[in-house]
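Per reviewer request, we include the raw input and output of the structure prediction for the construct analysed in the revised manuscript.
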Amino acid sequence: MSAGGRPQHFGWFLARGFGPHGWGHPYLDWDYDWTRPGLYQQSARELEQAGFDFVLIEDAPSLGSAETIDLRVRHAFGGPKHDPLLLAPYLFQATQHLGVIPTVNPAASLPYTAARQFATLQHLSADRLGLNVVTDTGSARHFSAAAPLGHDDAYDRAEEWLTGIRSLWRSWGEGALVRDAASGVYADGTRMDATAHRGAHYAFDGPLNAVPFERGEPVIASPGGSGRGLAFAGANSDIQLALAPLSEKSVREYRARIHAAAVAAGRAPSDVTIMFAIQPVIVSSAEEADRLVAASATPSDATLREVARRQSSDLETDLTSLDLDAPLPAELFAEHVSQGSLRRLVGDRDPATTPLRAHLGALARLGRISDRSGFVGTADEFADLVEELGEWGNDGVLLWGDLHPVTVHRTLDELVPILRRRGILRREYTGAGLRADLRAF
């Protein structure tokens, strides 16, 4: 690839959430305390030095069903997790430009409370807050006695929640914030909107007891690959977190679906920054990459069981007790299980006829960046991939991993200089917040 590639946005996906970082890895002996902010602050400063737009923090407020709690906590795959919204101020304090996007669940907080908290953080951070809106219904029992919503109904609730929050953010009309020291008038209450909301899931009144934004509302991000999830992103999101095969056909088709959803909602395609999630393994040489890939070709049963434990956590469904050589039982997964997590498990294989061993083995096996069979390779090879994505119109890449200094450096030390020399990775921020940085190119 030649120098001078298309600039792209870069984010870091803290895939383990605000949890026991280092657990199960040799770098646990660096002796960071995952419950303290220093670990995350150090890594956030490194990401900002690297020119990343944001760090996005995964979350699941629940330890899952009674049947899978032990699976989630025994090896800390799915818990414990602390609240990422409360980690955000510490990351803002440690940085000047990096956006911070904690995951939030509409079931967990009422619109008025959420709108006020998010507005406060947007002001405190100088407009660097984002919100990753998820519709997880597995945690419903923690917030009310009502039965969990179905997949599409949960998106309907999220849409009402977000629409309500935005109405509260906008409840201070034009000219309501006066701040005229000479007259002593701080605000004009006659220019405020009472914002009486009565919906299917929420009822509340405004106006919001927080001042309006001067440089825009918090950025909204969302995952989701279902038809309803893509429609939600097209109508509401500034960032769409994409999981799809990184072939030209797949990337272009995925982007076209998001763009069509945006247009259907009266928005421009450019209103949504699409970020493909990738978990690269950056190594020092092609020979080392070949060795890693070869070693993963025939995973042992013990390795497959380890993969099953991780997938059981993600899917809130116990796979560890199933026969490796039998297909997945029909009706194994409840309705609330993430469709994206299911697709990650089964790929394009037929669940009714494919043994579990094949699904787990596909996840355990590694592939080479150079032949586009996987994500193991050198920094140059990964830069080639990112540059190729840019040629297909890609907006950005979301690197997936722990927010641990060891992981950050292992991934970025060689990669950042190469991306910058090729013109793919930013060197400067706008200084006007996350939304402005996303619109910079």
